[in-house]
Specification:
Blueprint: H1 14-18, H2 22-27, H3 36-48, H4 56-63, H5 67-79, E1 83-85, E2 92-94, H6 96-107, H7 112-126, E3 129-136, E4 139-146, E5 161-163, H8 168-175, H9 179-188, H10 202-215, E6 218-221, E7 228-236, E8 242-251, H11 257-260, H12 264-277
Antiparallel strand pairs: 1-2, 3-4, 3-8, 4-5, 6-7, 7-8
Length: 283
């Protein structure tokens, strides 16, 4: 039984408005459009939602704010690791911290179980380790992974990273980058050799990326780990952009790359199902 005097009387009028919890007030349209947080969000969206990394003037035009204001916001975001500048240019791109945060959002989203189930089914079909990856700066990060039951397998769990130029998923992301960004990466990035088959010649890598974009899938023929091959297909968002990759790894003695290609239809089907599980608006 409720006791009298245990709860304060209900408020009405201005007093009630003053007592509204912050969570409620932030959920409606009363948040000032010019608040610092919202302006920073608009700047990050202007950078993240464009194919070609924008310059300061492009961002100002997109968000409708003066250059001094946008410059201060960018300086703060850059210090926080949320945005960064393209090497050798004045263009801005998403920072490593923002990319990592986007991955964590996807990793811990409610659809995680559905994504994992798709990977499990693909492993049943292929008999090999399968994973979901996303781009993260100059690397590829494993978002989720299901291991094969075979005793011989690769120890690269969720959260692990591999280089763009030496992995199937990484080359796939590079191939679908805007041409200007792709050419800059090939020209300026150190193409570190990991095995004797790693593509370290810029011209050879550029030709490989053109071929990947044309055929719609990528391979890793012992380019990151000797004795391991990989096949990767793109995962598209609602606008057709490549936002993730579905990949399969296998030891070459057990499944040569020439035989792994037979699983392309199953992988593409799984990639289509994977796209339906992810709310890309959170990224």
């Amino acid at each position: 039984m409720r006791r009298a005097g245990r709860h304060p009387p209900a408020l009405s009028g201005p007093a009630a408005a003053a007592e509204t919890p912050p969570e409620e007030s932030l959920a409606d349209d009363t948040v000032p459009a010019g608040s610092a947080i919202l302006r920073a969000m608009r700047v990050m969206e202007a950078i993240a939602c464009t194919e070609v990394p924008p310059q300061l003037a492009d961002i100002c035009k997109s968000v409708g704010l003066p250059k001094p204001t946008v410059f201060r916001i960018l300086a703060t975001l850059e210090a926080a690791g949320l945005v960064g500048r393209e090497p050798g240019s004045k263009r801005y791109q998403c920072g490593r911290r923002l990319s990592t945060l986007a991955g964590e959002v996807l990793l811990n989203s409610p659809s995680r179980a559905a994504r994992h189930a798709i990977l499990e089914e693909l492993v049943e079909q292929t008999g090999e380790t399968c994973n979901l990856t996303i781009p993260n700066g100059n690397a590829v990060t494993y978002l989720d992974r299901v291991e094969t039951a075979w005793p011989l397998r690769i120890a690269l769990g969720a959260g692990s990273s591999v280089p763009l130029h030496a992995s199937a998923s990484g080359k796939l992301f590079l191939a679908y980058m805007p041409r200007r960004s792709r050419e800059r990466f090939v020209r300026q990035s150190p193409l570190v050799r990991h095995t004797r088959k790693t593509l370290t010649d810029p011209g050879v890598l550029a030709a490989e990326l053109d071929r990947i974009r044309e055929q719609g899938y990528a391979t890793d023929d012992e380019e990151y780990l000797a004795g391991i091959c990989c096949l990767a297909v793109p995962v598209h968002d609602a606008d057709g952009r490549v936002v993730a990759a579905l990949a399969m790894h296998a030891p070459v003695p057990r499944l040569p790359l020439t035989e792994a290609i037979q699983f392309l239809p199953a992988m593409r089907s799984a990639a289509g199902a994977m796209a339906q599980t992810i709310d890309w608006s959170v990224t």
